[in-house]
Amino acid sequence: MQTQHAFSASRPAPGFIPALAPHPDDGTDDAPAGLTALGAVATLRRGTAAYREGDLASHWYRVVSGTGCTSKLLPDGRRQIGAFLHAGDFFGFEALQEHGFAAEALTDMVVIRYPRQRAESAGDADPTLNAFLREIACRSLTCAYERLLTLGRRTATERVASFLLELASTAPDGRTVSLAMSRSDIGDYLGLTLETVSRTLAALKHDDLIDMAGPHSLVLLDRPALEEMTEGDEPAVRFGRA
Amino acid sequence: MQTQHAFSASRPAPGFIPALAPHPDDGTDDAPAGLTALGAVATLRRGTAAYREGDLASHWYRVVSGTGCTSKLLPDGRRQIGAFLHAGDFFGFEALQEHGFAAEALTDMVVIRYPRQRAESAGDADPTLNAFLREIACRSLTCAYERLLTLGRRTATERVASFLLELASTAPDGRTVSLAMSRSDIGDYLGLTLETVSRTLAALKHDDLIDMAGPHSLVLLDRPALEEMTEGDEPAVRFGRA
DNA sequence: CGTTGCGTTGATGCTTGTCAACGAACGTGG
DNA sequence: CCACGTTCGTTGACAAGCATCAACGCAACG
Fold first, then answer.
1. Contact B153 A127 (CB under 8 A)
2. Which CATH number among 1.20.1250.20, 3.30.930.10, 1.10.3720.10, 1.10.10.10 corresponds to the domain A153-230?
3. Residue numbers in B near A153 (CB within 8 A)
4. Which part of the chain is the HTH crp-type domain (chains A, B) (predicted)?
5. What is the pLDDT averaged over residues A49-77?
6. Which of A112, A239, B112, B124 is most exposed, with minimal Cβ within 10 Å?
């Protein structure tokens, strides 16, 4: 996908302001006032980039709605997705000077942009905000390390199963998952090819571990079995979620 | 390796105090005074753990001398090494409550332990320390993401080449590397088997890209060729180094 | 001087990637 | 409204890269 670099608005669009409030499915994830005061709403059209590799890291971000991903490309086109970005997730913290990963919208997105220098200064004077930022960084690191284990040591089936459980962990009923991303995106997230992802999902369906209404809508039928497949010991935690 | 949980000393051992000073090969990496004041020296024997998965995250750590690694196990014994820890590296920041990864000494190690709560409080009152901690977190995240790309998308040869370049990046001459870890450790770091690591190193030697005096002492003969093999665009940065 | 741990090398096979074909869904323009 | 191209997901056949299993040499050590 050819991404373009574009924000459509740097000031709140009226229709989106309600989304700035805490998300209904998670009462604990709104930012401290010191950070919220700095945020500006922006919208990102599907396929456009919030920033690219090498861009100056001038802002931190938070997803209001829609889904995106951070990704990095090798010169020959191989791609690794660092994280999927869902409503409530923070991103853009990984950079000191320049972004090492690009961030791109997989669907139309609404995000909040926080000017980084001002946010850092605010943190210096506000222990609550400071703790909040530390927590985001910690969670991001924990997630990244968990993913190292997945990419380094798990089989294709285990990877897909852990991915489904990760998505289901934020579903209201814990079992209904809607995939906003393509098979290719999932493959690039899990270090697999899109064909392997497709085949693995088909196998899980054949074994009655999941059900698929359409390619982007599925239900976990046997969560314990899926959890056992990942051989993991702790629940999946999503990237950057405070 | 059966790791044991043991610190041999919680107060400075006379012989090690000089190592607390900035490391001779890097004048920029000593901690702010506010953090240094909280540190207590401890020694770790080879094969012992600073902490294990599930331990309460009560401290942050910094390596004074020796080398270690953070690692995570699957129930069936598969292991993923999150990072190798060298002199100057900070570790233990990834945990909010409990450690998700264990940290273990691969050689005898000297580390500094910083009580986490006191360090966090100190950070709240000290912008310099605060920025320092942010920087460590950023670098750790950048490293982790770079490693996601390696584990998810690079071939065995590319992984080994990038590993060697990573090690060489802190060598005085940029080409002489001494491997403190075993082939098995390298494999667990790169998501490969120890046999593949051994074979890949042999192939690199055969192609005159590296020279091996012994299994743990090698020299990069053709850095440009190795860099091209990784297909990466930016220099390797080591975990947690400020 | 036997034992143990580690690194190397070989033979073999499995998991996953690659290449290809096909169908469904979607948008576009005649 | 329908032909058309495009994108995406699925499935099959095949190949390759790496894992697995195994044997051997060497150095360290009690």
1. no
2. 1.10.10.10
3. 74, 78-80, 188, 191
4. 154-224
5. 95
6. B124
